[in-house]
Amino acid sequence: MKRLRSVLALYVEPIHLGDAERAPLDVERLREQLRQVGRTSEAYFAVCVVMLMVLFVAALWAALRATEGTGFVKEAFAGLGVSMFGLIRAMLGLWREKVATDVLLTLAASLDSDTLRSVIAVLLKRLG
């Protein structure tokens, strides 16, 4: 979620005491950047799905072609399990980023600047 975090960090201002004027929030620029983050997340998610399918087909092929014993099959499925775990973890992170991006994109259309800044600050804090 580094990409979403970096976009949100541009729109959070440090807290100032007193009656300082806040700069206006460029909502259209924010929405365009969020759309780009969403498209990037979708593309990476699709790559992960394709890699997952390729790994699964490769493991099946290894299981069907192994004639000399079960040692090769065990190694192939061990590699598949470790790789699938890593890919699924990456996919979950990408999905979380996409959902957060879509929610913020929807909220950006209907909230005023001050409320949107507070939502961005809370979301940025929750993202870590």
Describe the structure.
The structure is a single chain. The model has no long low-confidence stretch (mean pLDDT 85). The protein has one domain (2-13, 27-127). 80% of the residues lie in helices and 0% in strands. It has 128 residues and is mostly helical. Helix 3 (71-110) packs antiparallel against helix 4 (113-127). It has helices at 2-9, 27-65, 71-110, 113-127. The chain starts with a helix and ends with a helix. Keywords: Membrane, Transmembrane, Transmembrane helix. The chain crosses the membrane at residues 44-64, 76-95.
Sheet/helix structural class: mainly alpha
- Helical content stands at over 70%
Spell the H/E element sequence. Answer: HHHH
Strand content: under 5%
Radius of gyration: 22 Å
How many domain modules?
1
Describe the main β-sheet briefly: none
- Number of distinct beta strands: 0
